[in-house]
Every structure is written in structure tokens, then in C-alpha cells.
């Protein structure tokens, strides 16, 4: 693991790392914020939040734009932000579209050629990166939550349901909540999985939740959605996830905000609430 950059931030330190990923088969980058509580040589393992960013983003986008570090410092959270896809595979067509391929890994393990060789973001985030930060970077494996935005909100809601013993709390900003039903998701799932929508359902947050026999997060899920979001009607479908949660008996706080769009000004406005949500569920307060 190679340290690429380091910056003092809110009493802690913001770092970017690169390592050779076994899951991806290529070098991968991720950013980590260490709060002051994690900086002492003999510091205890710290609660940790994984943030999954949206289409076209990198491992730095959330750390630069969201303003989350000040609240992570308050609650003692390590923040981890992976990149959104493999880079440098040099596969034909990998960068032809902004919503598929590079910058658009959708946090799934592709099964279709040629993507299945390197596009293995589910295994990377939920297995390899989880193990790396909990073994080498003082993250407490018993106190890890996950959240994300847009494509990353989709990833957070899906990975939380698929790996509930690893991710103990979950929230999202403007998630792609029913990717099997929207153009972004249909394009990505067709490319990564083929035409079998039965396979798609295993990576669709609303479809997964509708099949839950008991609420996987009884303390609740938090979602914030801006009503001025230009992608809301065609791509996001929060109402589908809301219906699925109602069916499963899953407590959900879905907050709809007049005037807010899909960008990071929206995220920065409500980021403190999300860290409070995770702090409460991980029993930090």
C-alpha cells in the first residue's frame, strides 16, 4: 500500500492510498480521513464509514466536496472513499460513455465479458477494501457503516443488504433506488450481467428489500432526496424503495427537500445528519 498524499484536516489527517488490488487485478486508489482520535500511536480501533460516490467521481470527490471531516472528527469516525471503478484496464470502449465503464462500476461484480475480468467492485469494496482497512488502518470491524450518493447510494443500499454482518448501518443521498427500472441501471446491468433480469434483482435495492422476511436494519435507514433533482423522475425512484421498506417492515426515514438538486451542495447541507445517524446506530453517542 502506497501513500500518495497527506493533509492535516480538522485535527486529523486526510490521506490517499494506492494498492495493487487482487479483486480488480489493477492498482486501485482510495481516500481515508483519520480523525484526531485515531492519530495516537496506541489509538484504539475506530468506528468507520464507507462512502460510495456516484457516476464520474473518483476517490477524492466526496472528501473534497462534502465537508464531512469536521463531523467525522467530532464523532471519531474514520472515513473511507474508494474509487468508483477500475482505471487503466485499457479495454475497448471502457471510457466511451460517462454512465458505463470507467467511473461507473455500479459496485457490482460483472459476469459478462470483457467486464468480468476487472469490473469487480462489489468484491473490492465489501471484501478486499473492508479487510484492508480493518486489518491495517485501525478501523473497528464491528462498527462499520456504509453510505453513498446516486450510483453510490445504490451501492450502499445493496451492499448493506448483501453484507449486513459487515455494514451495521446505512444511509444514502439521492440513490438509484430501483436500477432495474431506470435507464442508468438497465444500461449498466445489461452490460455487466447480460439480459437476465433475475440476476439484476440481486443487485437492486428495492427488489432485495421487498424479499426481506424481517427488517435488516431495525434501527432505521436514512435517505435524503432533493425535489429539484433533475434525475429524480427518470432515474432514482425512491418511492419504489419506500414501498419495499413498507412491505418488509423496514423503518425508513425518507426526507424530501424542496429546492435541492443532485449535487454536492445538497450533500454538504445534510451530511452532518448522516454522520449523526450512523453514530447513533453504531452506539457512539
UniProtKB/TrEMBL annotation:
Q: Name one GO cellular component term.
A: cytosol
So what EC number does this one have? 3.1.2.12
Q: Which GO terms describe its biological process?
A: formaldehyde catabolic process
Function of this protein? Serine hydrolase involved in the detoxification of formaldehyde.
- Organism of provenance: Cupriavidus taiwanensis
Any single GO molecular-function term of the entry would be: carboxylic ester hydrolase activity
Catalytic activity as recorded in UniProt: S-formylglutathione + H2O = formate + glutathione + H(+)
Q: Which residues cross the membrane?
A: none
Active-site residues are 150, 229, 262
Q: Which Pfam families match?
A: Esterase (PF00756)
- Please give the name of this protein: S-formylglutathione hydrolase
